[in-house]
Amino acid sequence: NVAHGLAWSYYFGYLKFLLPGMDKRIECSKHWKTDSTKRRMCKKILLLYPSSCHCRLRRLDEDSSGRITHEGEVELLQDRAGVVGRVYKNTVYSVVSKEGKKFYFVGEYVTCIRTMYEMEQSGIAGLKPDDTRLLSTKFLITIKQILDRDKDCTNMYRIIFYEDSDQSGKTASLPDHIVK
Amino acid sequence: NVAHGLAWSYYFGYLKFLLPGMDKRIECSKHWKTDSTKRRMCKKILLLYPSSCHCRLRRLDEDSSGRITHEGEVELLQDRAGVVGRVYKNTVYSVVSKEGKKFYFVGEYVTCIRTMYEMEQSGIAGLKPDDTRLLSTKFLITIKQILDRDKDCTNMYRIIFYEDSDQSGKTASLPDHIVK
Ligand SMILES: Nc1nc(=O)c2ncn([C@@H]3O[C@@H]4COP(=O)(O)O[C@H]5[C@@H](O)[C@H](n6cnc7c(N)ncnc76)O[C@@H]5COP(=O)(O)O[C@@H]3[C@@H]4O)c2[nH]1
């Protein structure tokens, strides 16, 4: 079933080697090394999961009413399946809290959501909006179970599930979800 | 079902935007522009598909008895699902035919095969070798159907399905399969 395939693929093809050592890679980035930013940078990668599965945004700094800014990246290179030096890049953003404090984090949407969204939108995969919700729930349960069993991934990530009532994968409160 | 999920993910998450314009990207690479190599470079990306689904090799130039050499890359950058400037890199290799002629090509394994292989090997996904074969067949049929319907992808790729009896994702004749 589709949700299982996507969850296992997301784990074996990405999280299994990305997450272990994520904290070290963040520590090596220039944002960590700057004293002023160090105390306000999260050492876990934030994986955003909008309830609608619509991750319409290509970048987290679009549409965020200026509260999220693109700051840089952390990279991991790996030879894989015939591609020499495949690049696994994660984006560093900063977010301003309601009180005006700036926090730094590595974040992105859970990539598979984009696939589920496009499968539904295109119509060619035969997926309806209700199917997507079900798929998404199964996917989330499965990926959490998989990650719980991998000790090397523990504490390297946080899945942030949030309600986006406007179905756009963003909400005015996304920056606040992140700040928390 | 798993094969469908992987096929749709491979299409929406990769081939749908990678393949259109692949020929232009190859033409812009330095290998194409050199007269001596131009006449012997394939303008389609070669997607290798070993029958065992075991793509044990990380790079095509390992174990190829020196006949395959890493020559360079072509890249595509795209903002996607929160990652700014995600890198989609394809590797350029050269291969020497039995007559000693050198050909250039952009090639890699069909990435999802690696996922199926690891799901089976790890045991945690509950997949047995027979399941993998079935999964692989369904995946191949599905991805071919999807690509046949996308006119922008036509003539941009060739899926090379080959028998690897030693179950290692490579065969002494791999270079020859490629040369053809
Ligand atoms: N955010 C993010 N950054 C990454 O670098 C990345 N790499 C993979 N993934 C996600 O992990 C999972 C497993 O990846 P796999 O490589 O087996 O399948 C991939 C792979 O078969 C193919 N593909 C995608 N990008 C590339 C690439 N750069 N090179 C080769 N193949 C690729 O298309 C499938 C779907 O990709 P995405 O839909 O982007 O999400 C993937 C997927 O959910 C990523 N997610």
TrEMBL record, chains A, B:
Coiled-coil intervals: none
Domain of life of the organism encoding this protein: Eukaryota
Protein's recorded name: Endoplasmic reticulum interferon stimulator
Residue range from the parent sequence: 161 to 340 of 390
